[in-house]
Write a structure and sequence with these properties.
7 strands, Chitinase A, domain 3, single chain, 3 helices, alpha/beta, Helix Hairpins, 39% helix, 2 domains
Length: 158
């Protein structure tokens, strides 16, 4: 199944994969060899920790390889800003608190709430897709029901 993402998001996954393969994997192999040299493995905490780390690294490598192989690059610059779509930046007004929020809709792998990037599959993302400036949307969160007004939809270079 295709995994939608931006070129920047795909590049970040490739950088992480390269680091894991060329830096982290060799280091953990060296750590395992060093821990083995200390003798009895049954009570060797360093060996156990290194093996656990190796398992994590190998699983992450497989995960990244899968995501990279199935990535579907979405060129945001070729999309219309008429409606909210993948790659759109949306400025919202919380109708209760009167706070403005700005989100860019990205793929799940790229979501980063601290930097205003939310997944199109998140509750807010799903509520916004297909809407346009001037629309009101309701988003059900675990804490409460939030009503937003869409103030602006634009396509930025992401």
């Amino acid at each position: 199944m295709p995994i939608p993402m931006t070129k920047k998001g795909l590049d970040a996954l490739r950088v992480e994969l390269e680091r894991l393969k060329k830096v982290e994997r060799p280091k953990v192999i060296q750590d395992i060899a060093e821990a083995r040299s200390h003798g009895d493995l049954s009570e060797n905490a360093e060996y156990d920790a290194a093996k656990d780390r190796q398992g994590f690294i190998e699983a992450r490598i497989r995960d990244l390889e899968h995501k990279i192989a199935n990535a579907q690059i979405i060129e945001a610059s070729q999309l219309s800003a008429e409606k909210v779509t993948f790659g759109a930046t949306v400025i919202l007004l919380d109708l209760e608190s009167k706070e403005k929020r700005q989100y860019t809709l990205v793929g799940q792998e790229e979501s980063d709430l601290k930097n205003g990037k939310i997944s199109v599959q998140s509750p807010v993302g799903r509520a916004l897709v297909g809407r346009k400036a001037g629309d009101s949307v309701e988003v059900t969160t675990p804490a409460r029901l939030i009503e937003y007004e869409i103030l602006e939809v634009r396509i930025d270079e992401i």
